[in-house]
Amino acid sequence: MFKKLVEPAEAINTLLMETKEVFLKHVLSESLEVKIEEATGRLLVENVYSLIDLPYYPRSLVDGCAVKSSDTKHADEANPVELKYKGLIHVGEKPIDKVSEGSCIEVDTGAWIPIGADSVVPIEYVELKGETAVLSKSSGVGMNVALPSTDIGKGDLIASKGTLITPELISSIASVGLDTVKASRPLRVSIGSTGDELLEPGELMVEGKIYNSNRSYLISRVRQLGMDVIDYRIIPDDLDELEAKLLDAMKNSDIIIFTGGTSAGPEDILYRAAGKIGKILVHGLKIKPGKPTIIGLLGDKPFFGLPGNPRSALNVFEKVVEEYFYKMGLITKKNFTIDLYELPVNVFGTRGRRTYMPVSVDNIYAWPVARDSYMIASYAWADGYIEIPSDTYSPLTKGEKVSVELFKHPVKTVYSLTDIGNLREYSNIIETAIGYGLYKIIPVPRDQIDDVVIGNMEHFITTDLLMKGKKRSNDLLYTQMYSRELVRLERTGKCRYTGIRAGYGFLAKQFNGAILYHPRFQGITILFRRGYIDCAIVPSDLLEENRDLGKYATDTVANEDVLLISKIKSNIT
Questions:
Q1: DSSP characters for 406-475?
Q2: Among candidate residues 16, 47, 11, the one with its CA nearest the CA of residue 327
Q3: Start-end ranges of CATH 2.40.340.10 in the chain?
Q4: Is 506 buried (19+), middle (13-18) or exposed (0-12) by CB count in 10 A?
Q5: What is the pLDDT of residue 360?
Q6: DSSP secondary structure letter of residue 286
């Protein structure tokens, strides 16, 4: 008799608790350096970090004219502005000329923005008349420009070890110049069917026998999921022989799936054999068809005993086994799961066009990632999409509930409210603080979020300076990483533009001139080195990586302690 029927979700979670950590450690113990195009369906054996900043120079997001925004301040159709036209820069070309006051340079989409320009006026608002460009639209600082490292920064974590390698992840890895990864071997799944009544397809029909369709379905489906199969074919109803097959499967595979013999009758011996050499966690599911299902462990390997009835076996595999694979991060979804999450920030679509915004989900929030079409490396952080209809003319607002189409199971998220330099150096500290498992690190400007949002983050990296003396809950766990200084770089003695990371804007009030806010310190460093800005506020540790900038350091702006804060149980007040 079945002692207790269990809901499928409860059964899956029970198995996850028993297997997740040990399963990953076992699979990741073997590795192979493989070409990224051949790695689909395997797991990363080590963290993958970006080798470069993307973009690594300012790029135009549209065809148009690169300008000084101050030259277009009052331009409109009634009052167009005339600028000196200084030529065209194609994609892949390095600018030779500069944009000076009263001039402009035409650029293709994706082209390198010339020094002196701080925005791009789209070509539909530009009329070329010989050596003159007539502009009928104004443009603000940074408009239609992809700034350096806004997709991903050099040293950023693209994906952590144990992550399933998908075509989307391969695209992200390729975008930073990597052509190989250390990956696991393909997962091995043992498949067998029990029953004296079974025949293999192709054998001569014998009265009283039935053809074994379960094995054919399971093998083809498991291979379709990118896993290797160890085929035990048909196993007779003999307890000793069945135990021997299960022991062999336990030794040679990562996951064991057998069918038949799962009920409680005298001829149903699979549950007895599995219970003798392993541990049965569940015997009986609240599901139809598929009630007589076994879920357990053989050694430390997950074991599924599916009913012999073909419809039951198929149903349990799709609803239970595949869901376990999905929550383990071993597969993506065949069909998207749609869940509701809250927006922590305002999100804008594009008027007149249906917008699909990639998001990373964590706790209650859906965080926009890879917001612009040029962003591909940071797309690795996405778990799904939100869809913004073409007739939505106002933004989706912070706090609004949105439907997210999930295509992979979310993993732990660490939010980085500040850049911490080389993540490889601090990976052990981060992984110790957040616990074992897959994770991602997403940069979030401090000025975009409030204390309630921070209070709902489970793990984040910040500084005392950014927290600005806010009282913290006693339930917070702190891991101090290091202390550093923020320094001001100055090239000319006159700061027409000062670059500063978004979230640190309160420091910029100390300086004259226009402020260029950037989501990353790395991007500010690139802009300063290439001559796009005159002054910058950056951490001293970035100067160590960019020794040519040390000569520009003028003074210390602030000292800050970088902290990893995790395991939040209540809001910051």
A1: ESS---EEEEESS--S-HHHHHHHHHHHH-SS-EEEEE--GGG--HHHHHT-SEEEEEHHHHTT----TT
A2: 16
A3: 337-407
A4: middle
A5: 96
A6: S
Helix (H, G, I), strand (E, B) or coil at 555: strand
pLDDT score recorded for residue 571: 47
Q: Which residue has the tokens 């336990």?
A: 250
What is the location of CATH 2.170.190.11 in the chain?
A: 59-146
Region(s) of the chain under CATH 3.40.980.10 = 8-28+188-327
- The CATH 3.90.105.10 domain(s) of the chain lie at 32-54+152-183
Rounded CA gap, 267 and 264, in Å?
A: 8
Provide φ and ψ at 448, rounded to 5°: -90, -10
DSSP characters for 76-132? Answer: -SSS-EEEEEEEEE-TTPPP-S---TTEEEEE-TTPBPPTT--EEEEGGGEEEETTE
Residue 188 CB neighbour total at 10 angstroms: 18
The domain defined by 414-566 carries CATH number 3.40.190.290? yes
Name the residue with tokens 């991007």. Answer: 523
Burial class, 351, CB count within 10 angstroms (exposed 0-12 / middle 13-18 / buried 19+)? exposed
Q: Which ranges of the chain have pLDDT less than 70?
A: 1-3, 203, 208, 262-267, 334-335, 393, 469-476, 568-573
What pLDDT shows up at residue 57?
93
3-state secondary structure (DSSP) of residue 38:
helix
- The fold of the 337-407 domain, in CATH, is Beta-clip (2.40.340)
The answer as to CATH 3.90.105.10 being correct for domain 32-54+152-183 is yes
Rounded to an integer, what distance in angstroms lies between the CA atom of residue 179 and that of residue 168? 14
pLDDT of residue 209: 75
* Nearest Cα residue to 189 out of 250, 136, 269: 250
Q: Which fold has domain 59-146?
A: Molybdopterin biosynthesis moeA protein; domain 3 (2.170.190)
CB 148 within 8 A of CB 55: yes
Question: Which numeric CATH code is attached to 8-28+188-327?
Answer: 3.40.980.10
Predicted model pTM: 0.90
Residue 290, both tokens? 């598929």
In this structure, how many other beta carbons lie within 10 angstroms of the beta carbon of residue 100?
Answer: 14
